[in-house]
Write a structure and sequence with these properties.
By secondary structure, the chain is α+β, with helices and mostly antiparallel strands. Helices cover 39% and strands 18% of the residues. The chain is built from 5 helices and 4 strands. Helix 1 (25-41) crosses helix 2 (68-85). The longest helix is centred in the middle third of the chain and has 18 residues, at 68-85. The chain is globular and about 50 Å long. The model has no long low-confidence stretch (mean pLDDT 93).
């Protein structure tokens, strides 16, 4: 019986609703571990995750039996429930609608992992909006800025 063989690497980027800086250092590590657990629980491979106060980067080795949209939905739903159940924030936590999903080859993984894990340093030079629009342009994704995340200027 033939098997399916694949090599799919996707970086997900999504933001806190209203772009509020709700992800605090006090629970950031716990949230990142929880998100990795969600991804593992879906039989996918988390390669890197980094939560900024207002957005997240997540790199996943994706098997073809899982759709991109289903994985993002599950990560967002379960992680927001976790944050709210643990009372990590004073207000109800929600992720914004939408996300970015960008694909990479195996030869790019070290660079992408390094990029994700160095988000704090990276954002000293570039805003999330600049970063996200750079992704869209680099990957030649057509977009209308009025349908992107809510931006805090």
């Amino acid at each position: 019986m033939p098997n399916t063989y694949s090599q799919i690497y996707i970086q997900f980027v999504f933001a806190v609703k209203g772009r509020q800086s709700l992800i605090q250092n006090s629970f950031k590590d716990e949230l990142e571990k929880y998100i990795c657990g969600i991804v593992n629980g879906k039989n996918q491979k988390p390669l890197a995750v980094y939560c900024m106060p207002d957005h997240i980067h997540l790199l996943v080795g994706l098997s073809p039996n899982m759709s991109v949209s289903d994985l993002v939905r599950d990560v967002k739903n379960n992680s927001s429930k976790f944050i709210n159940q643990e009372d990590f924030t004073k207000i109800k936590f929600k992720w914004q609608e939408g996300y970015g999903a960008f694909s990479y080859s195996k030869s790019q993984l070290d660079r992408v992992i390094n990029y994700i894990l160095n988000q704090k340093e990276h954002h000293r030079k570039k805003t999330f909006k600049e970063e996200y629009i750079d992704f869209l342009q680099k990957f030649e994704v057509e977009y209308d800025e009025k349908y992107l995340f809510d931006w805090i200027e």
